[in-house]
Protein 1
Amino acid sequence: MLPQSNPDDLHPLIRKLESIAPVSGDERQAIIALPITVRNLKAHADIVRDQDRPSQCCAILEGFACRYKLLPAGRRQIMSFHIPGDIPDLQSLHLEIMDHSLATVVASKVAFIPHEALRSFLRAHPRIADVFWRDTLIDAAIFRQWIVGLGRRDACARIAHILCEVYVRLRAVGLVNGQTFTLPITQAELGDATGVSTVHVNRTLQELRGNGLIATPKGGGGQVMIKDWDGLQKAGEFDPTYLHLKKKAA
Amino acid sequence: MPRFYFDIRRDGVTKLDTDGLILPSVMIARAEASRAAIDMVREASPHDTPELVVAVRDEAGKHLFEVQAVVRVLER
């Protein structure tokens, strides 16, 4: 029994799609008409697990999520972070079995869209199917940057790069406050994402603050204030081109 | 859970840890200090002969232990 779908629910998804390609009024209406199940999930809740065969996709509406893989002895690699508007498991529409897990990082509001409904919608709106395809390609570009970071950048550059990337992605969907944004992850989670040990993450953040690049107010719930945007980008070897954002969003 | 402070000493210069990290035990702190030392020595330039020390204090400022990571070139 599906709860009444509020027309505003999928607004974050529309906003995200519009940040990478134009979306027409008709397409917007069709997105709003998608049958969805909205759920409020706790922090660290698995949305879909490694080896699952899901029958729906999940759009993040509020909060923050991550793709991760658990390895033997409890080691974890976080492979990407996800913000409102992202559909991190879109691949399940075409790849039947999950090769990684998706979980919330903080309490999040999500919308589940059944595969069949999404499939019919995309067939009826091939231009939006192109936009989803574009989004998946950008997803891959983000992975490539993370690979370069994990392979060749030092801890400071890896962390600075992630801070820049999350900031620019949140800015594109209007979720920043000037040069302040929220990255609601622990230092251990940042370490799992960058392949850096927890102490080194801790020390690197101190270094970034000490160099006047960022400020992280205590008790700020993951708030990051960028003090020197050019400096932070340089420290992270960050160039937003790979995010392929539309001009006005970038 | 106790807070531990991880000071980094490189070529005689010490960078003090101003924040510290809350960890379950000294044993875990030792493991984390070792991981950090390995991480940091990995980033040293090949032209250095890096000696890196992660020195750990407790909340009272007492010195608990230190982890040294050394890369030494021996000419033959």
Protein 2
Amino acid sequence: MNRKRRTEVLVKSDLSFLKKLSALIIDKYEVKEIETPNNGLVMIKMRDSAKKNLFYLGEILVTECKVMIGKVIGLGILKGDYKEKSYHLAVIDAAYNASLEEINLLDEYIEAIESELKSQYTKDINNILKTKVDFNTLDEEVKA
Amino acid sequence: MIDLVQDTAKSYRKLLDSFSRPGEIFSLADYTKNIDIETPFFDSTLLISYILLDGEVSYNIVNPKVRESKDLISRLTYSNLKSFEQSDYIFLTLHGDQELKKEAILQSKVGSFENPHKSATIICEVESLFEGDSYIFKGPGIKTQNKIQLNFLNDWLKIRNFKNKEFPLGIDMIFIDREDNLMSIPRTTETKGCNK
């Protein structure tokens, strides 16, 4: 699975899921922490919808962590103050970067969560759409 | 494990001092002892990349293991690998190809008259800063003159002086040795080779 797709799923998952995935790696390989989870600020780069200009929306707090498996580095970074999560994200990233055999199993788990998240997202969107105001009813004359 | 704040801040001050006092030798050993990652180059080179590199600047590296070095440095510092002409920082490691190192220096950017700071800084690994060919340094930051010894490429001084002939355009050089000693030669320093 490509990095973008798996990252989108992983950052939205909860800590227990990430722990379960990274345990598959930690139990078998030597994982070295090279940058302990720490906070940082990242500028949010956006493109405005009118003139398509690039600008910075503001700053966001992130937690980042780097680990090493063999000679390969993995990076875990996510929005908010989640030190443990960033560590597990880094371990999973290192596993993918090193193309370890466990990634097939990781792919399966992530795909399962991906469909769960998709259905939850559709449910949420539908709930929101239910609250959409029907402007047509405002045009009806109020019958005295 | 290296402390990204304390170790890089303190070694940055040493780097600045080495630019203020060209030819004087400073030690980075206190800070490199916290480095526990295996690298295809010196620990002090990794320390310098922590100090100087980030997502806003570019670098290049001459090393037999280019791919491994680039993966390591880019992932650790978020910096981007660019060509010799475009790089802000060029690392010439000890075992890098000699001809390629010369190419790198010759192609490095020297800035422009409006922006002389948009030039390259070359970081060179040498075996030792205490033995080798002798050179005399004179200029800002040096009381009368400094004598230094090092072995680097043939004609490196000629190439460096050629790049720096249109002051303020030019390149700055940082030298580090196996024992984590550091010495810098900014473009304002006059150099003369002697006793080859």
Protein 3
Amino acid sequence: MTFSVSFLPNNVLAVDYFSSVFYSVVFRELGPITTGIVLISRSAVAVTSELSHARLTGEFEVMAANRMNPKLVYFLPILVAFPVCLVLMFVWFDLICIVAIYVFISLFESTSTTPDIFGFLSGVASRIGIIDVTTILLKALAGGLIIGVVSLQFSLKVKDRYTDVSRAISNSATVQLMLLFSLNFLISALSYR
Amino acid sequence: MSELKLTNVTIKFDDRLVFQDLNLVVKEGETVCIKTGVLDGGSTLLKLMAGLVQPDHGVVSFGDRPLYDYSDAELFQLVGMCFEARGLFDVFTNYNNLVLPIIYHQDIEPSALEQRIAYYSQKLELAEQLDKEPFQLNDVQTRLMNLLKWLIVEPKVLVVDEIQSGLSPQLRHKVIATLQEAQERTKCAIVMTVTAGDETQFAHRTYRINNCKLEAEA
């Protein structure tokens, strides 16, 4: 992005270029995909692993013996936490990217082409409309929900074999990644046609 | 008087018949021992009594209501199942394994809960294990931790799966004495599966599993 500034036509301002690239690449697409991958690789895999282990060792029967509803103890928190997490991760990811991009450009670009931070931020903000916010929220909420549901579904398939656990983890991660990419593509295609 | 009743209970897993036309009544304040062998359905019988498995025919009831008619909160106070193996949540400490199911269901005074935990954990020699996690317990301690939880809950019926296995003679006497003391105070019914070498003289009645039925012993 920094080096490409040198190829900008004379009538294109650097601040417009930077904010446009950030908006269309990071905010609209890279952010949702990257944060989804992080959620899958860190949290969803851990949840699938723990729940699969709980199935294998009979903890659901223990829960039944304690008359505790696994839907309230295990499932509901996952289905609420994952979408909320993804929304918060989007925000955090975008903030970090904004700061990182600006610092990187400031370090490697001449002062004549480097936009000031407020110019950059207002350039980004001016591009974000209600459709963008709705699209991002939809990607986060639907994505988080789907990731949570897939984790639960594969965990609950585990029966008595030790190898069922690793199978559940790898299969759920694969399906989650495929659904994440498909969902993001579909929502983007519908929102930005 | 409320009693746990199994009426014409038949249960099978896949094609294997476990029990057929089983009838048993366990009264309030009574201790029943059931002598079991290997894979003869001892644990299944206890799970039937706890409502964790449903019979293919017949009904398990407490008082005049079948177990499936009770809510989760009512069942928690009604029947407690002490598992032979595991029976604890690996993600929690032993202390939280005791406390969390109780506070999930009941609005109990923390000081009263602490008192009961302290009292019974001393009796069962588990006081030093409370801060540890289930993976740090041996099999005997795991069974006793299961028992500790239900002694604190004080259900009307306690079903205990082979609690005596692996206990030293001194600890065995302590555990039986603690159960009897709890029964004396709360009038709970106790159903315990036992294996060869376990004591049964404290029981009011003893049965043996034979050919998918229960045979009473003199």
Protein 4
Amino acid sequence: MKTVISAAGCVCALGSGMEEIKNNIYNSASAPRALAGRLESVYVKDYPVYAAPERALAQKKEDESYGFLFLRLAVDEALKNAGLSAADLQNARVGVIAGTTVDASFNCFDFYKEFKQNAVTSYSPLLRYFNTPLSFAVQKYYGFSGPQMTITTACASGTDAVGIAGQWIEQDLCDVVIACGTDEINMIPYTGFIRLMIAGKKPCAPFSLLRAGINLGEGAAALVLESDSFFKKRNKKPLGYLRGYGTCADAYHATSPDPQGRGLKTAFNMALKNLQINKEDIAFINAHGTGTQDNDAAEAKVFNELFSGVRVMASKSHTGHTLGAAGAVEAALTLMALNEGVIPPSANFLAEDPALNLVPVLKSTPTNGKKIALSNSLAFGGCNSVIVLEGGR
Amino acid sequence: MNSKIYVNACSLVKNPSGLEAYFEPKNLRRMDFFSRLALKAAAQCLSEAKIDLKEEKNIALIISTGYGPVARTCDFMDSIINDGDECASPLAFSSSVHNAALTSISILLNIKGPCLTVSNLETSFESAHTAAKTWLNCGFADKVLLGAVDEEHRVAASVLESNPEVFKDFTDAQTGFGAAFFLLSRNGERELTPPPAAKTPLNPSASAFALAQKYTDILNLEDMERIASCYIKTELARSGHDIMGVFADGKASGLLKNTDPALKTKILKGLSRLFSETEIELREEDAAQSCLNLFKKNKFINFFTSGSTGAVKNCVHSSAEVTEEASGLLPLFGGVKRVVCTVPSSHSYGFIFGLQVPKLMGVPVVQKPPLATLDWSGILEDGDLLVAFPMFLKQLLSVGIKFPPGVRVLTSTAPCPDEVIDGIYKSGAHRLTEIYGASEGGAIGYRTASAQPFTLLPYWKAEIAGGKLLSISRRDTAMTIEMPDIIEVAADGRFRPSGRKDNAVQVAGINVFPQKVERVIKTHPAVKDAAVRLMRPDEGERLKTFIVLKEGYTQSERIIKNLRDFMKQNLTVHETPRKITFGETLPVTDFGKKKDW
């Protein structure tokens, strides 16, 4: 597999747009904060989140969700960076694959409260929920014509979106695919993760001793994948390439990963199948790295078994866990790091956990010319997805 | 991406009860309705495909759902509203995620392959189908278990009831729920047609349910063939269509491929109805006349049999062949004044003895349903020929029938046990004639006493080799048939059948295959090994099974109930063993050959 990724766009706690994100990630400039106002929760002060920048939030239209706001900002940027206009895509087969959790769920908490009290003031939230499946909404907004799909495999959704986008291009289903993911901070997952004791009160510290859980994040990323023939019409350099994709179920537990990492290992092997590369060719792995005890232990085990010595980047220490957007956000960050030739540091690390035998990069580290990186995601329910990316610049 | 994908198995579930037949109760205890629906449909689909539910499977699993487990989302929101953030239910949250069903299925059915959940309301299944095709085409997996599951959206349903105008702009305001699963691969006979989007987000998986309904009807070939043969007897016999072309390939699946749209609709409508034997008999007056009219017009009649392969087979008899047969049988029935027929005229046996032979004899025919509870002593008269079959005769004996003097009894369609023959004589029948025959050839031989061999009917000449009857040919017409059974011929030319060549046995007149039943039973998670055979006459007339349980399972009421539920769901009525015996090893002879128990 070698599918062109022509451009990316992103909004997350690190910033609005790839340039701002790039500047901030190397300086570890993001931090979780209490999100008063949008969350009416007793936990707001104790459980911080990685919220999107205010100037991004301020662009929300009245009839759209924050999730869709982030997504259109990301897609706008990606298309602009790709040098593609609406006219360019008018006669093309353009697919949209979007990963999400909140946007596909009936998380209309305010409406639901009114409904329970027989005091509904407006049915707009209900109708909006029924009228706009996310991927379809993107197609309609941009006027694309082609297949669409919204993936809700929890935290692996964004990675699956990128991987399947590559398959659609390879199988000539589309000329262009917008592979994206989005999620917003919402009362339901916020409360749910706290009640499951997966969320932490401190900034998330992936792979660190005394790591105490996730901080939810929000944002979106969009990658533009193109067929060779379509891309060649424009005189541009690709942002990178999708080189492989794998996914596999643990079949182990509803909320904990398989401690032996069986499903994750299989996903890595699937993604790397047919690629003539050794682990020495890999610049880094962008880990799922949520900062929970179980997740980080399972990942560290697999990394040590399959990729001993390969550097590990933990971008959730900058973005928080953006759930359905995570895979897409991390793909964008991975490509950025490959093209910069520098692996960003992982933030909030306290001390090495001897049980893991793994420390992520803690300062900006050169890739030494290596062009390949892996990005993996582990989802609730034991779905493991991996993509292999190659830098293009 | 133009390659085709095929449906290897399919299931549609609207009621998740009966999951205990597949899984331990402790694994189901906290499972919600949404996941139960999906799990049952997935288990049924894999069972239909004869895939071991417990063994690790490298199958891709794709779930499409319009809403996900929306009831659990509402439950979680309720727990926040009612109990506060700090007491909100973590279980409700963890089971409210969209891939909850995928999780349950992958864990409980041990599916460790690529996995995906797709949710875009009414286009979810259409998108998931694209994903399945993508993965099959790129070799991600050899098989994909594609499922669509949705429960009714309780808030939408409530709003529909109280304020239907809210959804006035929706094309269709009907809600729905269920789970439909398809096992897909790049090989098979049933191509999966790309599904359209559902009409409304209020029933987002509707198109999947409709597709499953269609494939469930078609794919369950054995049930379909049984229903088809009943339907054909009663409906097509009076349709006037040239049914030869319809059954050109001899298989019931061809029935649905090769027919014109109007006839196909008619056939499908008929297939959707289960005809009871009583219904068929009650229609017999009409059908008998239709058969005669068709026969007269076309100069041939087409009989359908469950056949040696289990596939519906058409057996055409020309009018010359029918006349030859009926004429050749006349000498057996001297003195008959009336025929009382309990067999449908569209069956070869009923057509010959209920229509043609009486016509040549010039005697009237009365059609009666084969119900032992009728007053047969009052119905039958001196000089009657009762055209019956072994199961019905046994039922007559069980109600203590006393035949009026001079009643002759005819039996065919299945071997008549010796004790039944003896019992009929003891009950006062003047004479019993058992006809040995086959739909392909009609009546072949006869006998009039138990334990006797059969005498070849005079219109046949036989090819014999090594004491076995290989084939027979008509003397006047061109019909030649190979014997469906192994036939041993004595020195005096009389013969005895000694077993089916195709290992089928007959249960209530229907061919069933014990080996197939064994295979199905062995797919139950608790079963290590199984044997199936027909009961001995003293035991009954159904199948029985001997089961060796896997380690960790013990014979108990619960296991027996699990097995019975499993068999009920995966076997036809005639295939389901009535008696279950447990043991540590299958009964075998000293030489290791399976033996009776």
